[in-house]
Amino acid sequence: MSYARDLTAIRALIASHKRWDHVFALCGLAALMVGVLTFTALFADMAIDGIPRLNWEFLTNFPSRRPAQAGILSAWVGTCLVMLVTAFFAVPLGVATGIYLEEYAPKNWVTDIIEINITNLAGVPSIVYGLLALGLFVYQFGFGQSILSAGLTLALLILPVVIVATRESIRAIPQGIREGAYALGGTQWQVCRDHIIPYSSAGILTGVIIGMARAIGETAPVITIGALTFIAFLPPAPVSAEAPFISFDWVMSPFTVMPIQMFNWTSRPEAAFLQNAAAAGFILVLMTLAMNGLAIYLRYRIRRNIKW
Amino acid sequence: MKLNSGIRALALAAAALAVQATYAQQIVKIDGSSTVFPITEAVAEEFQKAKKQKIKVTVGISGTGGGFKKFCRGETDISGASRPILKKEMDDCRAAGIEYFELPVAFDALTVVIHPKNSFIKQLTVAEMKKMWEPGAQGKVTKWNQVNPQWPDAPMKLFGPGADSGTFDYFTEAVVGKSKSSRGDFTASEDDNVLVQGVARDVNSLGYFGFAYYVENQDKLKAVPIVNEKGRPVLPSLDAVIAGSYSPLARPIFIYVNGKSLGKPEVKEFVQYYLTHGAALSKEVKYVPLPDSAYTTAWNHVLKGRKGTVFGGTPEVGITIDELLRRETKS
């Protein structure tokens, strides 16, 4: 009798615990859906408005006052080039900073302050970077309203993200690996080069892509440094048939980027431009997705080669 | 981290300056008013096509005031302006040794709009608009019957452009009597579509912006006839602006060209193209073109080197096309 009663009590207890399990699972699902559904709704809305407008000419035409002829050639080329400059500066600087702070820097109050500062920098509004860049890059260094200025600005913007990601992934490497390498007589640089950097590169890559995905949609700092609205030409080509074959003229070229083109189109009186803006937004999301896809692929490739 | 990037940028500066020296391209740099932008953009588009992309034109939108700041630092060749240059800006330009040509390119009709279902506003006088918009109205005049006792006891919702806009400068000058002097408690946006949406959603709202935005949104908005100096209410339209009866909210818009830049063949060609095709293109983007003679006169000023402004740096309102022509031809 009492045994059966105990059993019922225990079953009731288990059932009640399981109920809580379900409740939490439902809460979690609901929380997930808030994000997913919002994104899906936004993306679907944009896709419905934008996809009918998409065709080859939209990608290969310059902006125009006639919505049907307007395209995003200068905008997407500008965005790609700015991203190139951003990655070129942000990745080596961010990764080097991260490795130094994690592996070389002495642990004292100075490094603590630097650490806090870097984390705080990640939260500084992007327009502040834009203002800094306007004073420093555009006027002080005389880079003007160029791709270089924009790339440097966005590089500064994503630097904290890259540094933090680098440090996190370095910390995930087991201490034993370092100790093993040192025991074999490796110098600090050898340990970093042969172990720390290769093993953390998957995590670093993720950080870089997250940073780049943020930078690609940034409008405020790029407007602040004076990216232009109507550009119907491309920067000079980086390679040419005449000597010296490679030219860096393009870094000093005026430019526009996707978010600015979209912003301009949404403020037009004609409704057809709103469609263009939606189509441009759709392409921008695709560009971000492509970047993320590349990151996932590279991460997979790198992870496969790690044999701990 | 900032330090790192500073050093890197410094190291790059030398390299980049070397690059810059070799980077000589034919670029016409234009910035300024968002009101003039549609015309300039159309001209730039056609010009680059006509020149087979050999001459490059960049157009930015910094607002009339923001555009003049860059222009008077010598950063741009041409600046679009939805009002004449002001005293302070003239001084800035003079201090930087920048001389300029003032070329009127079209007229715009500032349009006051209401919700299509609003039946009590049949027309507006400047005095009524002043009651709504003057700084003293802030927080006090919040209902329609406070402006005109015949109007209903309903809340008044106002929409207008932000303070960086030449449109704001002109409207406040024309209505309140002092440029930039306005109540602050209205919904301000630099994006005219936001104003369109705002007015289209609320029966008790009123807003103002350029004619082109009204033309594109006639299904959502109603324009209000403005009572002119002769006491006649006039709806904004191309004809009314040409006849000079839509007053005082019709305004000339300009481009200012840096005198030194005109020495560059690409800038001169662009300005000539602007004045030759400006009439047709401004009509296409819903502005009121000037009579042909106005463009010829402007081009003659360029050829003869007549620089400066005909407005003397003080804000003026209610200038008709005829009056503008009279001033331009007097020299």
CATH architecture of the largest domain in chain A: Orthogonal Bundle
Q: Can you count the beta strands of chain A?
A: 1
The SS-based structural class of chain B is alpha/beta
At the fourth CATH level, what is the homologous superfamily of the largest domain in chain A? MetI-like
Spatial order of the strands in the main sheet of chain B? 2-1-3-12-4
Determine the number of helices of chain B (DSSP H or I, runs of at least 4 residues).
Answer: 13
Provide a concise account of the structure shown.
The complex is a heterodimer of chains A (308) and B (331). Chain A has 308 residues and is mainly α.
Structure description:
The complex is a heterodimer of chains A (308) and B (331). Chain A is an all-alpha fold and 308 residues long. Chain A is 73% helix and 1% strand. In chain A, helix 1 (2-50) crosses helix 11, helix 3 (73-104) runs antiparallel to helix 8 (188-216) and helix 3 packs across helix 10. The model of chain A has no long low-confidence stretch (mean pLDDT 88). Chain B has 331 residues and is an alpha/beta fold. In chain B, 42% of the residues lie in helices and 16% in strands. Chain B contains 13 helices and twelve strands. In chain B, the strands form three sheets. A five-stranded mixed beta sheet of chain B has the order 2-1-3-12-4. In chain B, strands 7-6-8-5-9 form a five-stranded mixed beta sheet, sandwiched between helices. Chain B has a two-stranded antiparallel sheet with strand order 10-11. In chain B, helix 2 (37-50) packs across helix 11 and helix 11 packs antiparallel against helix 12 (292-304). Chain B is elongated and about 60 Å long. The termini of chain B are far apart. The model of chain B is unreliable at 10-23 (pLDDT under 50).
